[in-house]
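Re-run requested by the PI after the first attempt was lost when the workstation crashed. Everything re-entered from the original request form. Ligand of interest: adenosine-5-diphosphoribose.
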Amino acid sequence: MVILGAGPAGLLLGNLLHRNGVDCVVLERADRTRVETRARAGFLAANTVRILDRHGLAGGLHRHGRPHGVCEFRTAGGRFRLDYGSLGRGERHTVYPQQDLVTDLLTHYLGAGGRIGFETEALAVHDAGTTRPSVAVREADGRPGEWRARYVAGCDGRHGAARRSLPRGAVRHHRDHGVSWLGLLAEAPPSLDAVGYAVHERGFAGHMARTPEVTRYYLECERGTAAGARSDEQIWDELETRLYAAEYGALTRGRILHRGVVDFESDVIEPLRHGSLLLAGDAASLISPAAAKGANLAVLEAELLAQALTADLVHGDPGALERYSERALAHIRRAQRFSHWMIRLLHRTAAPGGESFFHEFLRYPLDESAADEALEALRTSRTRQDWFATYYVGV
Ligand code: APR
């Protein structure tokens, strides 16, 4: 079994397969330091915590993670808070930086004798239609190499080798939301005791705690904006304007440690199995950060895939991998639709509509004019608040 990528999906999958007696190796193009320090997501859903608990992999997040259950929406008409942790199913997020989770998963995997090849870049997956697929790699010393296995799990993200090696039959549902965010990591304690979503005539701004010393901010920006286009000072001023600091209090400023522009695109590969090649995490489906679901989907899919591969390889159940694709796609559809609803709730520039796969089955479909009404309904209607809380934390 070859697993491509040492992110949340690849490392959880490696832990579970190794524990189930499946011989596997993780191939990761980055070095160990990069893998353990790369700041990505940090909002773990209750179901993600349950999955990690189930497999004894949640020690770090229980020691250092912090429960989080409040959103604050700010608009020109005022602000309101949603204690989503006491709404819907009463579930909260756990704030725990992804690099810490990845480090925990890597430590467990190596501690149990798991094999990983760092600085080993997968170039392509060949013969996925056979029972002996091969992975062409560039080894750490730059030499070409090849790995053969019964199955290859593509957990190497949206731009990885697994996606590049999909056969023609693969369908990619894609949607460009026409929105971009400048993501910022600030060396500053959180300025709100909530996830902050601000809808302003100048554009969206977001606030998400990461640790007591570091806070994630987002600024909606024009497509094609350069991450370094504005000075730190200008960014803080813009954040304060859009987060209505004049009415609700100044932000706690600090050095901006990292910047990056993310264009909001969503996509899903269907199906998630192509012969001996299986997809999980961002390799399976790219989701926008609007509802903090990417890492949570990656963990969910890794557990489902581990169950299916174990059923196939250890218990001789050949139908398990087909069921994996159907089960994972059901969760991806739900997460994608809620994420799209959030994008249209918070941005006045978001592209409307979209092809059938992403059709808003949600009870409160949004068109541009309804976005303000939807925000008002979130403020006043318990029914909509319960619905929001259920989907916001659920995966
Ligand atoms: N060969 C080997 N490794 C690769 C290759 C390649 N060709 N391409 C990418 N990788 C590695 C990356 O270096 C990274 O460590 O695959 C890993 C993919 O990790 P993630 O991008 O974190 O993907 P995944 O595990 O699917 O988690 C996805 O977590 O990062 C958050 O919210 C984010 O939605 C995202 C979710």
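Saved to the shared folder this time. The first helix runs from residue 8 to 19.
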